[in-house]
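Kindly draft a polypeptide, keeping tokens residue-aligned:

***
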Amino acid sequence: MPNPAETPKAVVADNVEGKRAALDDLFTLVYDELRSLARHQLRSHGSCPHTLTTTVLIHESYLRLAGMEELRLDDRAQFFALASRAMRHLIIDYARGHCARKRGGGMVRVTLQESATAGEDRCLDVVVLNEALERLEEHDPRLVRLVECRFFGGMSPKETAQALGLSQRTVERDWRRAKTYLYELLETAI
């Protein structure tokens, strides 16, 4: 089996052509990395009830990606950005469906943080965060893709730059802009 760090472009290219077997091969090839991504996602979202596990998150992400009409991937960074986005939406759907039975009861809490600084250490509800991301997308969709890669995907600035086709400096500047914009939106929501 090939090294997951060297995901063959042939697998990704086959996937672009819509071959489900190629997506199966790709998931098999990078499964361990997807487990790390799913663990990061769940850890980032605080105390999700134990029924949402890394395995469930990976398998549900696979089903979402396999169900897409058109799946275009140029490289592994774009694949992981897309997987991060699928996981984000799954967690949001889960929070809406399973955690928000009563007003405010059992909501999943997340922190919007890259590092543990005082200003970034506030807890936020994942549903409120999603609403803020939807508002941000109306303003600047690229910033939302960046948040998905950095916050939800746990990607480094370099990996994010590769996934989005941007320079690392642009990613770092946009990351600051996205956090500032989200904080402003979340301040009014809390």
Remarks:
- The chain has one domain: 4-189.
